[in-house]
Design brief:
Layout (H helix, E strand, L loop, with lengths): L4 H10 L3 E4 L6 E4 L3 H18 L6 H15 L10 E5 L6 E4 L3 E5 H6 L3 H16 L2 H27 L1 H16 L7 H17 L6 H16 L16 H12 L14 H8 L3 E2 L7 E3 L2 E4 L4 E4 L5 E4 L3 E5 L6 E7 L5 H12 L4 E8 L2 E12 L2 E11 L4 E9 L3 H13 L2 E2 L2 H5 L2 E9 L6 H8 L5 H7 L13 E9 L4
Parallel strand pairs: 3-5
Antiparallel strand pairs: 1-2, 4-5, 6-18, 7-8, 8-9, 9-17, 10-11, 11-12, 12-16, 13-14, 14-15, 15-16, 18-19
Helix pairs in contact: 3-5, 5-8, 5-9, 6-7, 8-10, 9-10, 9-16
């Protein structure tokens, strides 16, 4: 207990509670972060987000999105923060806000939007989350999970050293992340209300958010295989149909200001989106079933079939269906001697490597070692492989319960052994998709337009991206978004 005393004291000081007036409701509420702390947390989170998930590098499009956001933010109920707007490099349609005013829309959200009013509604919604301090409210409610993770790491540190503490802390973050819903039902509806009011005040059609939500729901069903899932009582978000209905009812009551969109006609708005990357970004690597390929760094690796995979800017992670085995591939600075890289890793994490041996993987020098670290309830077994590559120092880190180490290590061995250079044919086969806008012919169908224009989207995706029914009859000159395939060129 004497070793845990300072940790508990620091926690007590950090979590000193306070009260603040909510800018949206005007009510006093209990919060654990001051405005200054919230802004600093947002600044740090924004930096981490850019490093790990990435931002779209298109200055003209980013400037356009920011111009819309800044117009809306001028009338935000909350003015003690500076608002920042960026485009997240995510293929799925998404939008979110970090603490203190950092707001993002994904390129996937732009791809399914069909007017500046829709985009304004999405951005206004996220401003609503910031204005109502929803992120701070969630921090207050979820602090218990963070405490458990931090205290668990402190206990492991007392029992097994700092290496064990690092492992427990990382595992705790992964486990805890899935337990906390982003926003509650009431928060989402409140953000809709604030966002629509901001959009209407600036002259936008406040029903834009309802149209976007409809497309978002259609896209979610498409990605789920066409199954319309019934909402559960435990869902963190209200059913989309309900949100759309309320948004349309609210829009009918709002008076629009005299502002004009930066891009008035739909054709002018879509022209802003031409050339937008849609689908996976090959520059960050991509999965083809269980095979991961990275054309910029020039390697490929085969992960176990049936494992859940995720590609981030800093690492690729694969998890077994039972969640008990996790394998991560990351890249660090170039180090021609993998033995030296292993020694530096062990020293930095205060982990004792169990022997180790040199080997060759994909024609490259490599080093493999095992380790065990004590955690609460037993030991975790680590499977570690370093590969010396001319572009980066690659490292596989496999984690499994010690009792399952033998079986898990065979899987980890096979994955690491599959690491190798891309062949010319495989590299040439990697393509990217870019958004284009074409004009329809009178009476033309979407399917007919797709065939003649070189579109690579499937018909349901094409229909959703344009806010149309799949069997819609098009009018002459109607602008339609399509996706065209191009050879990948490293940028």
């Amino acid at each position: 207990m004497s070793r845990l005393g300072p940790t508990l004291l620091v926690l007590a000081l950090l979590l000193a509670p306070g009260c603040a007036t909510n800018p949206v409701t005007g009510q006093t509420e209990f919060v654990l972060l001051s405005a200054a702390q919230e802004i600093e947390l947002g600044r740090q989170s924004a930096k981490q987000f850019a490093e790990q998930l990435g931002l779209v590098d298109d200055p003209e499009l980013v400037t356009y999105v920011a111009a819309i956001g800044n117009r809306l933010a001028e009338h935000s109920p909350r003015q003690d923060v500076s608002y920042h707007f960026q485009i997240a490099d995510q293929e799925a349609p998404n939008a979110f806000a970090l603490p203190g005013g950092w707001i993002y829309v994904s390129r996937g959200a732009l791809a399914i939007s069909n007017s500046e009013a829709e985009l304004a509604g999405v951005i206004g919604h996220e401003i609503g989350h910031v204005a109502a301090r929803h992120v701070v409210q969630q921090q207050t409610r979820s602090i218990g999970v963070g405490l458990l993770t931090l205290l668990g790491a402190a206990v492991a540190g007392a029992a097994g050293g700092e290496g064990a503490a690092n492992v427990v802390g990382q595992l705790g973050q992964v486990a805890g992340a899935g337990l906390i819903a982003t926003y509650g039902r009431g928060q989402e509806l409140q953000a809709d209300q604030v966002g629509q009011s901001l959009a209407a005040r600036d002259g936008y059609d406040p029903a834009g958010i309802a149209r976007f939500l409809t497309s978002l729901e259609r896209d979610a069903e498409r990605r789920a295989g066409g199954t319309h899932r019934q909402p559960s009582f435990f869902d963190s978000h209200p059913a989309t149909e309900r949100r759309v209905e309320e948004a349309l009812e609210r829009a009918a009551t709002l008076e629009r200001g005299g502002g004009r969109p930066l891009s008035g006609e739909r054709s002018a708005y879509l022209a802003r989106l031409e050339g937008l990357l849609v689908g996976p970004d090959p520059a960050a690597g991509l999965f083809r079933d269980e095979r991961f390929v990275h054309p910029v760094l020039g390697f490929g690796v085969d992960f176990p079939k049936g494992w859940e995979t995720q590609n981030g800017r800093k690492a690729v992670v694969a998890a077994a269906p039972d969640g008990n085995r996790i394998l991560k591939l990351d890249a660090g600075p170039v180090e021609p001697d993998p033995v030296k890289a292993a020694a530096e890793f062990a020293q930095a994490n205060r982990i004792v490597l169990d022997g180790g041996h040199r080997l060759t993987i994909g024609g490259l020098d490599a080093f493999r070692a095992h380790a065990q670290v004590p955690v609460q309830g037993g030991n975790a077994a680590l499977h570690l492989t370093w590969i010396a590559h001319r572009r980066a120092g690659f490292r596989f880190i496999g984690v499994a319960p010690a009792a399952q180490a033998h079986e898990a290590f065979r899987k980890f061995d096979a994955v690491a052994a599959s690491f190798g250079p891309l062949g010319k044919a495989e590299r040439a086969s990697i393509k990217e998709w870019r958004l284009a806008v074409v004009s329809a012919r009178a009476g033309e169908s979407l399917a007919g337009l797709a065939r003649r224009s070189g579109n690579v989207w499937e018909l349901p995706e094409l229909a959703i991206a344009n806010g149309l029914a799949a069997n819609a009859s098009l009018r002459a000159g109607q602008p339609i978004k399509i996706a065209r395939e191009h050879p990948f060129r490293p940028r």
